[in-house]
C-alpha cells in the first residue's frame, strides 16, 4: 500500500485535501503533519512514497523540509502546495526534484490529476525495482565475469557490490568447481549450497567449470573455511554421482582488483583430478625448480592465461617449450614431464572454451620416448589449438562489433549484462569483453555508461524533468549512484551541469 503525507500548517487545508484524496484513491494510506519539522520526523518513521508539501510554514519551511527528507530517503517524491506562483520557487523546487506543484486554491480535478500522475509513476518504479530484484542473479554472474576476465571501473564495482547485498570482506579467494559431464543441471544445487554456507558470489557455468569468489571469514583459517565449503559442494556427488567432480582453490587476494590471480591459481589446482581427495589448494601444487624460482613461475602462469585469451600463439609456444626445457635441464622424469605438459594444454583448452573457442581436448597419441619426441608432439597439439582459435575468429562477421554497439546504444536504458549481449549476438561473454578491449580500448560497461551519460546530458536540457526522472529514464535505479557516475564522467555534478545548460538557454 502506498503512503501519502500532507504537510500544511492550516488544519482545514490538510483535512480538505485528505477528504478529496481518500475518495479518489481509497487504496492509499494518508497521514498529516502540521509543519516542516514534524514532517521530517514522521517521514523518518513512515517512509512515505509521496509528500504534498506546503512551502510557507512557520519554523522550517517546505523547501527545507524536502531537503532533509530527501537526504534520508531519495526515493520519496514531492508535490508542492503554494500560493506563490513565482519562478524562484519553481527553480528551487526543480533542484530538489519536486515532481509538480498545486496552487492554492486548486480545483478538485487538478488535485486528483496531479497526484494520480505521480502515484502512477511511483507504481511503475516499484515494478522496475521488482524486475531488478529478479535480475540480481544475472548481476552476480556478471560481476564475477568482469572481475575474473575483465576490468571493472571502481565506481561501477562499488555500486555492483551494494546492489548484490552480499556481505563482502577485504580478503577473498576463488574456488573453481569442475562438474561431471552434462552437469549443467547441478548449477542451481551448487549455488544453493554455496549460498547457505558462505558469503560468496557464484559466476556463470563455462562448460564444466564454475568459478566462485568466496569472502574470507576472520574467525576461521583460510584452509578450514575452504575445505568446509569444498566438502559441502562435493557432498552433492553422493546424490549426483559421476566422474569429474573436483574443486581447485586459489590463494587469498587482498582486493577484488587482484582476485583474477586467485582464479588462475584455482584453475592450476584443478589440473590433476585423479587425486583421491577431490579438492586441492594451489599452494599444494608442486612447482618445478628450486624455491627461489616460485615467484617467477607464478608470473609465467599469469602471463600464460593472458596470452591464450589474446591469441599470442608464438608466446604460448615459447612458454610451453620453456617448461619442457626446464624439466629436461633438471633431470625430471620424462613421463611426469609429459603429464605436466598435457595438464597445461588442458588448462589452455579450458581458457579457450571460456572465450567461446571450441577445440578438441588435447591428447598425446603416444608416450614419448625422449624429450625431442615430446617437443614434436607438443608442437603438433599447439598447432591444432592455434588453428581452432584462428578459425573461430575468421567465422565472425565483420559487423559484429557494430551490431553490439548499436544494440547497447538503443537499449542503454535497460539492464544490459554481458550474458544478455552474448545471447543477442551468439558470442560468449568473455569474447565480447575481449572484442571491446581490442576494438575500442575500453570494456563494455564503460561504453554502456558513456551512452547513458550522453542521454542524461540531453535530457537535462528539459527543465520539466527532475533528476530522479532522468536517473530512471537512462537506466539507473539509484539517484545517488547516478550522480556519482555522472560527476566521474563529466567532472560536474548533475545539478551543476544542469545549471550550466539551463543558464546558456536563458
Automatic annotation (TrEMBL):
PROSITE patterns: HTH_ARAC_FAMILY_1 (PS00041), HTH_ARAC_FAMILY_2 (PS01124), RESPONSE_REGULATORY (PS50110)
GO cellular component: cytoplasm
PTM-bearing positions, type 4-aspartylphosphate: 54
Main subcellular location of this protein, as a coarse class: cytoplasm
GO biological process per UniProt: phosphorelay signal transduction system
Listed name of the protein: DNA-binding response regulator
Keyword Transcription: yes
Organism name: Fictibacillus aquaticus
Cross-referenced Pfam families: GGDEF_2, HTH_18, Response_reg
Keyword annotations of the record: Cytoplasm, DNA-binding, Phosphoprotein, Transcription, Transcription regulation, Two-component regulatory system
Superkingdom as given in the UniProt entry: Bacteria
Domain HTH araC/xylS-type: 402-500
Keyword check for Membrane: no
Location within or outside the cell: Cytoplasm
Domain Response regulatory: 3-119
One term of GO molecular function: sequence-specific DNA binding
Amino acid at each position: 500500500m502506498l503512503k501519502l503525507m500532507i504537510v500544511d500548517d492550516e488544519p482545514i487545508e490538510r483535512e480538505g485535501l485528505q477528504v478529496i484524496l481518500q475518495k479518489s484513491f481509497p487504496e492509499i494510506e494518508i497521514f498529516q503533519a502540521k509543519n516542516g519539522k514534524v514532517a521530517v520526523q514522521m517521514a523518518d518513521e513512515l517512509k512515505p512514497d509521496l509528500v504534498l508539501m506546503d512551502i510557507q510554514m512557520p519554523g522550517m519551511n517546505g523547501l527545507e523540509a524536502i531537503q532533509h527528507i530527501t537526504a534520508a530517503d531519495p526515493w520519496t517524491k514531492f508535490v508542492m502546495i503554494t500560493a506563490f506562483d513565482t519562478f524562484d520557487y519553481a527553480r528551487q523546487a526543480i533542484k530538489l526534484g519536486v515532481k509538480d506543484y498545486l496552487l492554492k486554491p486548486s480545483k478538485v480535478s487538478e488535485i486528483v490529476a496531479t497526484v494520480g500522475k505521480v502515484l502512477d509513476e511511483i507504481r511503475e518504479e516499484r515494478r522496475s525495482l521488482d524486475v531488478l530484484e529478479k535480475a540480481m542473479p544475472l548481476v552476480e554472474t556478471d560481476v564475477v565475469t568482469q572481475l575474473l576476465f575483465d576490468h571493472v571501473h571502481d565506481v561501477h564495482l562499488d555500486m555492483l557490490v551494494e546492489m548484490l547485498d552480499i556481505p563482502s570482506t577485504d580478503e577473498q579467494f576463488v574456488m573453481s568447481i569442475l562438474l561431471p559431464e552434462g552437469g549443467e543441471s547441478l548449477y542451481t544445487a551448487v549455488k544453493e549450497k554455496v549460498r547457505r554456507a558462505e558469503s560468496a558470489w557464484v559466476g556463470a557455468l563455462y562448460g564444466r567449470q564454475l568459478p566462485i569468489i568466496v569472502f574470507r571469514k576472520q574467525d576461521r583459517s583460510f584452509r578450514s573455511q575452504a575445505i568446509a565449503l569444498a566438502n559441502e559442494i562435493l557432498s552433492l556427488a553422493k546424490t549426483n554421482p559421476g566422474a569429474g567432480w573436483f574443486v581447485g582453490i586459489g590463494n587469498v587476494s587482498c582486493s577484488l582488483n587482484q582476485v583474477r590471480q586467485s582464479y588462475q591459481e584455482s584453475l592450476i589446482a584443478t589440473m590433476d583430478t585423479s587425486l583421491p581427495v577431490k579438492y586441492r589448494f594451489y599452494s599444494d601444487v608442486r612447482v618445478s625448480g628450486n624455491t627461489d624460482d616460485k615467484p617467477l613461475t607464478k608470473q609465467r602462469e599469469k602471463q600464460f592465461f593472458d596470452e591464450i585469451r589474446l591469441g599470442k600463439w608464438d608466446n604460448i609456444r615459447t612458454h610451453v617449450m620453456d617448461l619442457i626445457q626446464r624439466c629436461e635441464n633438471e633431470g625430471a622424469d620424462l613421463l611426469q614431464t609429459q603429464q605436466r605438459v598435457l595438464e597445461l594444454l588442458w588448462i589452455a583448452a579450458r581458457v579457450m572454451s571460456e572465450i567461446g573457442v571450441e577445440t578438441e581436448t588435447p591428447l598425446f597419441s603416444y608416450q614419448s620416448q625422449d624429450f625431442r619426441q615430446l617437443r614434436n608432439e607438443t608442437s603438433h597439439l599447439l598447432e591444432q589449438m592455434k588453428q581452432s582459435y584462428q578459425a573461430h575468429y575468421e567465422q565472425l562477421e565483420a559487423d559484429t562489433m557494430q551490431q553490439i554497439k548499436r544494440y547497447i546504444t538503443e537499449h542503454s536504458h535497460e539492464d544490459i549484462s554481458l550474458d544478455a549481449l552474448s545471447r543477442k549476438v551468439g558470442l560468449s561473454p568473455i569474447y565480447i569483453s575481449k572484442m571491446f578491449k581490442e576494438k575500442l580500448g575500453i570494456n563494455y560497461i564503460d561504453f554502456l555508461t558513456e551512452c547513458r551519460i550522453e542521454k542524461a546530458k540531453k535530457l537535462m536540457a528539459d527543465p520539466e524533468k527532475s533528476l530522479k526522472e532522468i536517473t530512471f529514464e537512462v537506466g539507473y535505479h539509484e539517484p545517488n549512484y547516478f550522480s556519482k557516475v555522472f560527476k566521474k564522467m563529466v567532472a560536474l555534478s548533475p545539478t551543476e551541469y544542469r545549471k550550466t545548460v539551463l543558464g546558456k538557454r536563458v
